[in-house]
Amino acid sequence: MAEFDLQGTVLSANANFLALIGSSEADVIGQPYSLVLDPEETRSAKWKQLWASLAKGNSQGGEFLHRNKDGQEVWLQTSFSPVLTSNGKPESVIGLATDITETKNRSAIDASTIAAIERSMAVIEFAPDGTILRANPIMLQVLGYGEEEISGQHHRLFVTKEEASSPAYKQFWTALSRGESQRGQFQRITKSGEPVWLEASYNPIVDASGTLVRVVKFAYDITAQFNQAAALMGAKSAQLESALEESREAERVRLELDRTLQEMSTPVTPIWDEILLLPLVGIVDSTRTDDVMRKTLDRISQTGSKMFILDISGVPTVDTAVANQLIKITKATRIMGCETLVSGVSSSIAHTIVELGVDISELRTTATLKDAFSTCLAEMGVLDLQRGRMPFRSQQPTLHRQRTYR
User: Fold this and answer.
1) What is the chain's Cα-based Rg?
2) Inter-residue contact 277 to 271 (CB < 8 Å)
3) Phi, psi of 281 (to 5 degrees)
4) Dihedral angle sign, alpha carbons of residues 185, 188, 190, 193
5) How many helices and strands, by DSSP H and E, does the chain display?
6) pLDDT by residue (tens digit) across 336-362?
């Protein structure tokens, strides 16, 4: 709590207020309140209007950025109340403040994380019943719609009439309403009626009471890869027809098609400056992990990335060979100067690895993709995990652009 005259000069301040702004009574009593505020705050029209309104006897409040003696940011949520004389005229102002610095910094981190995802992936949000709430520009471009054309429409706008009326489609939304995420490769229909293929996950979002409030979909457009694979499959089918009696030739064609499909499902994607992400979905065998290593090392060489997240939350199980291959990937990337984190290790996979006796001393794991991303940001100096916030603004990059951290 602090008291000010009608011009904003500090008349008194209690110990809690002084502790928040890191000052003593001698530093602030008799001084303008603006002395401990961020300069941009005091120059704003909002600040001038606030004191003009207080001088008229009107209570005001809001969130205000302060600077302590060390120049560090301190956010206070403050309620200003005029103190009136016996004839009803204001003679001073009482300010009651609460420290919200941690909340503001945490919100900033969350916002920058969401912004990074929005820049690299197609995102669309639905109400629990499938009504479209919003879509980011990448998703709108993929589907060929403007936001005003889809807002308030149902998800069935993007599927065929046959699929929309099918039991499977109903079961799909019923599972989401139970809080069960859905992931895979989905065919969707654009505004022009053309099919597109998306590697996507539908994620239920619940509020503090556990009630489903929305469904968020994250997706990659894999139409080009899918069409390329389909064209290749068509070409190979002619060869297969003429070689049915040659089993080894048929096996070669099958393996070639399998490799093509595997390449579709291993998108090594930059999600932040010097951070790569590879979400694995489905069955993983030695052949596929060899392909993962090849693509990952090539991508690290191209981008110079320092951190690589291998997310296996979509992998149901692994065997000894695959577990050892994951360790080899970790060692190989480390040789190239890139640290690997394996996220999304399920309880069944953890149990299998322990039962098989695989040595995982070289393997770094996190429970979730979010934890892995936070760890990467922390190790790059972008995020302070112990404080749960970004470095102070004077020490961190502007949020709307990426910079290289070393």
Assistant:
1) 28
2) yes
3) -130, 135
4) positive
5) 15, 15
6) 999 999 999 888 888 888 888 877 787
* pLDDT, tens only, 253-307: 667 666 655 555 567 888 888 999 998 887 778 778 888 899 899 999 999 999 9
Beta strands in 147-194 (DSSP E): 182-189
The CATH number of the structural domain formed by 2-99 is 3.30.450.20
Q: What is the pTM of this model?
A: 0.43
Residue 391 has pLDDT above 60, yes or no: no
Same CATH topology for 105-222 and 267-395?
no
- The token duo for 175 is 């599972």
Instruction: Please check whether residue 321 is in contact with residue 286, taking contact to mean a CB–CB distance below 8 angstroms.
Output: yes
- Scanning the structure block, which residue is given the tokens 């393997």? 363
Q: Is the pLDDT of residue 2 over 70?
A: yes
Phi, psi of 6 (to 5 degrees): -70, -10
Nearest to 96 by CA among 24, 12, 17, 192: 17
Identify any residues that bridge with 278 across adjacent strands, giving them in sequence order: 310
pLDDT at residue 249, rounded to an integer:
64
Q: In terms of CATH architecture, what is 105-222? A: 2-Layer Sandwich (3.30)
Rounded to an integer, what distance in angstroms lies between the CA atom of residue 184 and that of residue 79? 50
pLDDT given for residue 395 in this prediction: 39
Q: Using the 8-state DSSP alphabet, how is residue 350 labeled?
A: H
User: What are the residue ranges of helices labelled H in 304-368?
Assistant: 320-335, 347-356
CATH 3.30.750.24 corresponds to the domain 267-395: yes
Q: What span, in angstroms and rounded, lies between the C-alpha atoms of 16 and 32? A: 19
| Tokens at 87, concatenated | 């004839």
- So where are the chain's domains? 2-99, 105-222, 267-395
More confident residue, 268 or 189: 189
Taking residue 335's Cβ as centre, other Cβ atoms within 10 Å add up to 8
For 325, 375, 406, the CA distances from 307, given in Å and listed in that order, are: 18, 10, 11
What mean pLDDT, rounded, does the chain reach? 85
Convert 185-199 to b/e letters by CB count within 10 Å (16 or more is b).
bbebbeeeeeebbbb
User: Which residue is it, tokens 């102070």?
Assistant: 392
